[in-house]
Amino acid sequence: MKLTGAEIICKALEYEGVEVVFGYPGGAVLPLYDKLYDSPIRHILVRHEQGAAHAADGYARATGKPGVCIATSGPGATNLVTGIANAYMDSVPIIAFTGQVNLSAIGRDSFQEADITGITLPIVKHSYLVKDVNQLAATIRAAFHIATTGRPGPVLIDLPKDITIAQAEFEYPPQVTFRGYRVPGRCDSAQVYQAARAIGEARKPVIYAGGGVISSNAAEELREFAEKTRIPVTNTLLGKGSFPETHPLSLGMVGMHGTAYANYAVSYSDLIIAIGARFDDRVTGRLDTFAPNARVIHIDIDPAEIGKNVRVHIPLIGDVKPILKELIQRVEVPDTREWLKQIEQWKAEYPLRYTNEEGVLKPQYVIEQIWEITRDKNAVITTEVGQNQMWAAQYYKALRPRTFISSGGLGTMGFGLPAAVGAQIGRPDAVVFDIAGDGSIQMTVQELATAVQYNLPINIAILNNRFLGMVRQWQELFNNKRYSQTEFPDLPDFVKLAEAYGAVGMRVTRSEEVRPALERAIATPKPVIIDFVIAREENVFPMVPAGESLTKMVGC
Amino acid sequence: MRHTLAVLVENQPGVLTRVAGLFSRRGYNIESLAVGETHEPTISRMTIVVDGDDLVIEQVVKQLNKLIDVIDVQDVTQAEYVDRELVLIKVNAEPSIRGEIMQIVDIFRARIVDIGYNTLIIECTGDEGKIRAIEKSLKPFGILELVRTGKIAMVRGQKYEED
Questions:
Q1: What is the tens place of the pLDDT at every residue in B11-39?
Q2: Contacts of B17 in chain A (CB under 8 A)
Q3: Is A111 part of the annotated catalytic residue set?
Q4: CATH number of this structure's domain A189-349
Q5: Is A470 in the active site?
């Protein structure tokens, strides 16, 4: 039986096990939306296409399944761009369907035409412009395969309107073959053996765990590996949840706003075991002074990450999980007693710290309370970008994978709320918090309407200092407190804003109000905004100034 | 150091853009790029000359390999290979000096492919050194136009064992 292109898309999504898509209709995708109307696939109507891409991203990170978003041609497609770039930088599997003008109209500057495959070329793992309806099913199969295997990433499928109307026999290929795409297979055992020996010989080893541990679902293996070898573990921002941050071997986050003890441990180590991490500049600080005495074992599925930023002595290319399993079997246990003593000393000497002052609400305290109240719950934290994100990274101790979702590589303000929408849709039973700032929340606050429409009990904690806090902090430290364009003298009343959207708004100005407000928010079966009025010029410390060595921290 | 890469790609629209985009995005310098269909019509072959140290070239090769439409990347620089480039040069050639130009053309085993009122177009094939040399030799006559195809390269076949 012949199906239209739009019907083929709906069927293909069912074959791929897609339960929910995030999107926004428009002229070029009308045929698709007409078929979605009868499809069992749930469609979440966002309020801006950027929200659809971020929600698909948040959904993917919270569930481990690929996220799907749909936008119309032209402005709909270009509105997805930030979300696609975000997913690309953080290696998140999303599939973006964009409408396109009719095949014959392409290239004529037609109404709502944009060359979206061209625009997104540098920010997708791959993209397709479908020119033949007979290729549509195989294209969708290929897109899902590419997005979810190897190093995951976004794939875009551009759909000319006439392709969605044209008919073809539907047959969903069980698999697709590629001449130019191969997922790394088993890692070379000789390399694993070499790594196992190097680990045994090390005296000051550190595990540096990134988002790859989570996308490989290898948190259990990482824990077993660390506990067997007694090697301390630091994690990246995206690696939060790969190893419980309350574990005695945990050093918390490394890098620009990492803990002092993580930065010291990495800097003085003699062996770095990088697992699913990419030596980002926010992690390494100044490259030529990064861990000067360390040999480097790098486990990663993407061969291009090996040696990209730092010299790697033993590369282990492949999926993290099986490699860790093999390494656990073969590793020689190093003597880390002295090293762990040294680390305990650093932990005692340079803990994360802030001072609570009478009558002033500190953001760190708010995060600690959010952590206290959710630590034993099935909870997912999303963040925006800036000070709110770094305080969350420092004071929210992630315990399990897929519980801490943040925009790492791209640093996208406005990510947190739509990501929380996606996470809550994917995990309806979870307590979801978006830790936000007064700047970031205004970038995608329209998604509050989405949360209200679908009764998503998301809790939005705005750390409100009426500043673009992180930029202000840099201006304080590096520009003589010249606060150029970082102050918001006239913010909306966030309580009224919440109410205007049909959500619940609260304001908290004192420490003792924090806990009751959080309890009330969690008990409220609707979206809630809590406007935490915090100390205006509180800084995120410690801090490694940009381009400095990791040991050159200020404020610790 | 300059490296010559032989890159097999899917013969599909947009592939050249993906490859060129990768080079500009990551800040690699393409010195020349030549592309055409192979004997297998669904596969095109690109010869890319790129300048960079070993680390850069390693990254270039790895990043190219990450493109879904790239089937194979070979750095032939260290191998025994044949390389050729074709150049068309239009030179000033008043009838009185044509003889002199034709001698140069002969020396380089090039060909004259067009005679105009006051011009000649010369076609020359060869490796980079030869192309540079003929260009230099013709310069004094006044080069009006010059177009090069970019280098193409192929690794030499395995030789018969000598007794």
A1: 998 999 999 999 999 999 899 999 999 99
A2: 118, 121
A3: yes
A4: 3.40.50.1220
A5: yes
